[in-house]
Amino acid sequence: MSSRRTTIIAGSLITASFSAVMILPGAAVAEDQGPGSSKGGKAVDEAPADVKLTTLLPEKISVDNSSQKTAITATVKNEGTKESGDIRLLVVGFDGLTVKGVKGCSAIAEGDLPEGSNSGFSCAVGNLAAGKSKSYAVDATFDLSKTGKICLPVQTTDGAKTFWQQGPVPFGTTNPSPNAPATPLLLGTDNTPVAPGGDTLPKTGGESGVRPLGAAGAALLSAGAAGLWWVQRRPRRD
Predict the structure, then answer these.
(1) Rounded mean pLDDT of 7-15?
(2) Is-contact 39 124, C-beta < 8 A?
């Protein structure tokens, strides 16, 4: 990349129903992403008895410095002893990370995108059996001149409850390699952009309030170093 900019990370997720969706072609799964991690995730609304839903993201991804393309594997898992009932997984991008396609999932209409996000897809997981998981291949781009985050909420199909949410959690590097063919990014690391020639730019955009998807009036629970502020938004009517 020849030039890079810095931006402020901000985002919130909404409970709106999704309309005017389209199916995009599948993504190629990136190689050597390391083990899956639930870093940046937390339980939200109480799940049915003996159901424990979580998500996993790769610990590292690689971004092509020329095309900005990357691939991410997003996984939803039922670690409980009973089936989950019908659920959906959302894959939402923020700032420098833009989700271009998720295999088998529907694009969230622009008017229904969460505030502060640039892209999102809704995946109908269905009824996930106890101990089972389902993975989705995510095509994305990452503008390395910016910070970037991804968010994976797991909800009831109508969005009334969010049982689990991972993120918005950053991918990034503190040691950029502007002249290399690709840049490895680590989960849970704020990206440090660089200027042309490799000079590090001042980092901007401290951690902003993160508003996840959830039922109306859901209470905030603290999640490590980042706070999550819950909001409500009426579903769109067709």
Answers:
(1) 37
(2) no
Say how many C-beta atoms besides its own lie within 10 A of residue 39's C-beta. Answer: 15
pTM for the whole thing? 0.72
pLDDT digits (tens, 9 = 90+) for 56-108: 999 999 999 999 999 999 999 999 999 999 999 999 999 999 999 999 999 99
Residues in the chain: 238
Count other C-beta atoms under 10 Å from residue 131's C-beta: 11
Residue 189 has a CB neighbour count (10 Å cut-off) of: 16
Q: Supply angle C-alpha 116, 26, 97, rounded to 5.
A: 25
Residue 113 per-residue DSSP state: S
DSSP state letters, 167-235: EEEEEE-SS--TTSSEEEEEET-----B-TTSPBPPP--PPPPEE---STTPPP--BTTB-B-----PP
